[in-house]
Amino acid sequence: MLSPYGLDIIESCLTCKMRAERLFCDLPTAALQSFESIKYATAYPKGAVLFVEGQAPRGIFVLCKGRVKLSICASDGKTLILKIAEPGEVLGLSAAVSGKTYELTAETIDPCQVNFVKRDDFLRFLKEHSEACFKVAEQLSEKYNVACHEVRSLGLSHSAAEKLAKLLIEWSSRNGESMKQEPRLKLALTHEEIAQMIGTSRETVTRLFADLKKRQILQAKGSTLVIRNKAALRSLATTG
Amino acid sequence: MSQSCLDCAQRSDRIFCDLEPEALEEFDGIKSLQTYPRGTVLFREAQTARGVFLLCEGRVRLSVCSESGRRMSLRTATAGEVLGLSAALSGGLYEVTAEVVDQVQVAEVRRKDLLHFLHQHCDVCLQVVNLLSEDLHEAYGRVRAVGLVRTRHPHSYGLHLH
After folding, report:
1. A219, B5, B40, B152 - which has most CB atoms within 10 Å?
2. Which CATH class is domain B5-146?
3. What is the complex's ipTM, to 2 decimals?
4. pTM, entire model
C-alpha cells in the first residue's frame, strides 16, 4: 500500500506490534481503547516542525516512527539540541500538563508517524486512567533526568573535548556496544548538530574529530565511528 | 509544626499536601517525620532512590557535581516541595544532591509505599504529574541559562560553582 513519505503507518494502537516495548504505549486494554478514540495519526516529512518553544500547548505528540530533534534557541539564533527523541517517546508533555508554553522546539529529522492528542482530551484521559497517569509520571521523570544530565554536562565540563568524549561514550553505551573492545557507533548527526548538542561551534567539532582520529582514539569507516582507544576517550571525558 | 498532616495549618497552601481526606489519612500513615540540622545531605546524586522527602519546613539546596568534584547550585527548594520525586518514580538514581540550608522538617516516604499510594489514588498521581511538569519546566530553564548564555562566566547566569 502507498503511504506518505514511505512510512508504513500504524493505523491503530490496538494492533500495534511495538506497543509492548514502549513505556507509554503499553497500557491496559480499556485505557488503550480510550486513547485510540482521542488520537490523530499523522505522517510528517523530514524537517517538519511539530511545535515551537514559546507556543501555547495544543496537545501531546506520541512519536510512533522516526526521530525528532528537541532544541532550545536563544534570541541571537544560537541553538542547543537537548535530545534526539526516539519512537515511543511522548513530546510536549510537561507543557500540555502544566498549561505553560512549550519549552522546546520539536523538528522531525526523519519521516515520522506521530499520534497527536489535543490537550483537553489528554487531561481528561489522564483523570480517567490512573495507569496512563503513572506512565506519564515515569516519562516526565526520565525527561527530568535528561535535563539534569544536560545541565551538568554543559555547566560543569571544562572543555568541548570533554563534552564530545562524554557524548560519544553515552552513544556507544546506548546501543549496547560499550562492553566491546572497540565499540562502534553510527554517526546519525552532522558536525553542526553535534556542535549544537554540546554547545560549541561546528568548526570546533570538526577539529576535535580530526584530533581524535590523529591520536588513534577514533577511526571513521563511512558514517560509522570505531572507538579504538576506550581508555583514552574515558580519560578525556573526565579530565577534558 | 504539626506532627500529623491532618492537623497541618499550611496544607491548603501547598500543591502536593492539599489532598482529599482519605488520601491524606493514608499519606499520614506512610510518612515518617524527621528533623535535620543545617548541612545534612538528604540524598546525593547517583545514589539509588530510596524515597521522597516532602519539605514541611526549612530550605534545601539542590546542586549537581562533576566527576572532578566541582559543584553547581541549581536552586533552593522551599517548604511544600517534594524532593527526589522523579528518581523515586523511575527507580533510578537521584539526579541532584539535596543539602539542608537551615534546619528542616521533612516527611519521608519510602519508594515502595509511595508507588503503592499513587496506584491507589489517581488524583494524587495527577498532582505528581503536575509537580514533575513544574520541575521539568524549571530544569529546561536551567539548560537554557547554562547552555545559551553569551558569556562563559557561570555567575553571570545566576549559578554558583564551588
Report:
1. B5
2. mainly beta
3. 0.82
4. 0.83
